[in-house]
Amino acid sequence: MSSELTRRMREIREAETSGRHEFSQLVGINKKTLESLEQTGRAPKGELLEAVCSVWPKYTLWLMTGQVNEAGGQVSPEIEKARKTLKQTGTDTD
Fold first, then answer.
1. Which InterPro entries match (predicted)?
2. Which residue among 51, 62, 85, 93 is least packed, with the fewest CB closer than 10 Å?
3. Buried b (16+ CB within 10 A) or exposed e, 60-88
4. Is the predicted pLDDT of residue 11 greater than 90, yes or no?
């Protein structure tokens, strides 16, 4: 069974980057290490989690706990995708 942290990190990667190569460059991890983490489901080390949170601070709460606080600016990739879709269709309220 894969680690929830690894699953959430992958969701961030899929929402915010074009793939493993770009994600790896942004967070400073070897692409092969990232592939191994995702394939085995091992939990990422603290340094990697910190790097992900530094690049995408809006996902920190969700990455670490699975919770969101939209009023505090803490969202999930799913919420962010919905926001982007609404902006593209012109149905957002901002």
1. Lambda_DNA-bd_dom_sf
2. 93
3. bbbbeeeebeeeeebbbbebbeeeeeeee
4. yes
